[in-house]
Amino acid sequence: MHHMDAGFMARSDFKGRIAHGTPVVSIGLTASGVDPVAFSHGYDRLRYIRPVFIGDTIRTRRTDARMADDPKRPNSARLFEKVEVLNERHHTGLVCEHIHIVERRPRNG
């Protein structure tokens, strides 16, 4: 766990300790609002883009990307949402796709 060793990391290219990835995922992905009518179907394409340093303040940016039919639920759709975890310097530390199951609006006609 060199990324947590202050002496080792002070001599590295990063010049400081890096936060462990698991808390960045769990805190970062729950830092945004909760949609009471959507059901989380999971996450895809999770990537660590840049290091998040201990002491960074992180926030989440969510962008609706696309919708698709849910093959198992005819009255539902899948909402694929791009999620980015950013620090106070606006650097993206993590990016993933959050898949929601949502109730489909009634179709006209």
Automatic annotation (TrEMBL):
One Pfam family recorded for the sequence: MaoC_dehydratas
Gene3D superfamilies membership: Hotdog Thioesterase
InterPro entries xref list: HotDog_dom_sf, MaoC-like_dom
Source superkingdom: Bacteria
MaoC-like domain sequence ranges: 3-67
Name of the molecule in the record: MaoC family dehydratase
